């Protein structure tokens, strides 16, 4: 899809990369609290690799899959990478201690695809392993949830995603707010940065100006999202 291949042409600012790396590192630290003996991790939609770097720093066996081959080719930190399109996953059952996806569940076409995707992540995760998503909180984003990306199709909130997890047979261990690199109660305070950035001044991100695009990206980076951690007890 050209829209996703276009991401490979956009390079983050040093601030953007720092925030992404900080968030990935903090997300992994939270996940490890719930299962300290994680040895292998599968990430779906790795982007430019901040979570891959966090996994490498923790000496985990890291695997990833993405729809964009260009992004996978540029992901030098990952040796085990597969080009595929979710929700079906081309991995054997019970292969990983952790399966993780950031900003991907909301792109599922509908609740059936969202449920199948989570079920697939559960299938490839070992018993006792963790299935985790970091997604935007659509209730907090409002219309920006639809405006930010035209492929946002599944309305992700702590309530809707927890319902999907329960239907998939996962035990929910925690749901935490996320804003930028901050995870936990303080994220609600950090999210003020997103709300104070006036989108009307930047044409809601529609301008081709790189400055406008970066300001809109800054705004949505600090909008509230959440991390959900579930355990495969089957």
Structural write-up:
By secondary structure, this protein is an alpha/beta fold. It has one domain (2-137, 151-188, 224-232): Rossmann fold (3-Layer(aba) Sandwich). The protein is built from eleven helices and eight strands. An eight-stranded mixed β-sheet has the order 3-2-1-4-5-8-6-7. Helix 4 (69-74) links the parallel strand 2 (61-66) and strand 3. Helix 2 packs across helix 3. The chain starts with a helix and ends with a strand.
Fold blueprint:
Layout: H1 2-5, H2 14-34, E1 40-44, H3 50-57, E2 61-66, H4 69-74, E3 80-83, E4 96-102, H5 111-123, E5 125-136, H6 138-141, H7 144-147, H8 158-167, E6 170-179, E7 182-183, H9 187-190, H10 192-196, H11 210-222, E8 225-232
Features:
single chain, 234 residues, alpha/beta, Rossmann fold, 8 strands, 39% helix
Mind summarizing the main beta sheet? 8 strands, mixed
Radius of gyration computed on alpha carbons:
17 Å
Can you tell me the CATH architecture? 3-Layer(aba) Sandwich
Structural class estimated from helices and strands: alpha/beta
The third-level CATH topology is: Rossmann fold
Under the CATH scheme, which class? Alpha Beta
Quickly count the helices: 11
Mean pLDDT: 90
**CATH superfamily, called what?**
Vaccinia Virus protein VP39
Could you say which overall geometry the principal axes of the C-alpha atoms support?
globular
Percent in helix: 25-40%
Low-confidence stretches: none
Give the domain tally: 1
- Per DSSP E runs of 2 or more residues, the count of β-strands stands at 8
How far is it from the N-terminal to the C-terminal residue, by CA? Answer: 35 Å
Instruction: Report the order of strands and helices.
Output: HHEHEHEEHEHHHEEHHHE
What percent strand?
A: 15-25%
């Amino acid at each position: 899809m050209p829209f996703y291949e276009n991401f490979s042409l956009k390079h983050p600012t040093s601030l953007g990369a720092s925030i992404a790396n900080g968030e990935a590192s903090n997300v992994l630290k939270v996940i490890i609290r719930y299962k300290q003996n994680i040895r292998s991790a599968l990430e779906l939609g790795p982007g430019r690799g901040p979570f891959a770097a966090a996994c490498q720093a923790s000496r985990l066996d890291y695997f990833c899959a993405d729809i964009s081959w260009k992004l996978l080719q540029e992901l030098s930190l990952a040796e085990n990478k597969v080009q595929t399109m979710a929700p079906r996953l081309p991995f054997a059952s019970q292969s990983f201690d952790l399966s993780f996806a950031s900003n991907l569940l909301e792109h599922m076409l509908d609740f059936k695809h969202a449920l199948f995707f989570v079920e697939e992540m559960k299938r490839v995760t070992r018993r006792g392993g963790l299935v985790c998503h970091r997604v935007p909180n659509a209730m907090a984003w409002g219309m920006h949830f639809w405006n930010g990306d035209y492929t946002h199709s599944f309305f992700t909130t702590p309530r809707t995603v927890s319902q999907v997890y329960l239907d998939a047979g996962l035990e929910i261990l925690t749901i935490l707010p996320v804003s930028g690199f901050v995870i936990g109660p303080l994220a609600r305070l950090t999210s003020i940065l997103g709300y104070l950035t006036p989108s009307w001044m930047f044409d809601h991100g529609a301008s081709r100006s790189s400055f406008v695009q970066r300001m809109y990206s800054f705004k949505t980076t600090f909008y509230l999202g959440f991390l959900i951690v579930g355990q495969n007890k089957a």
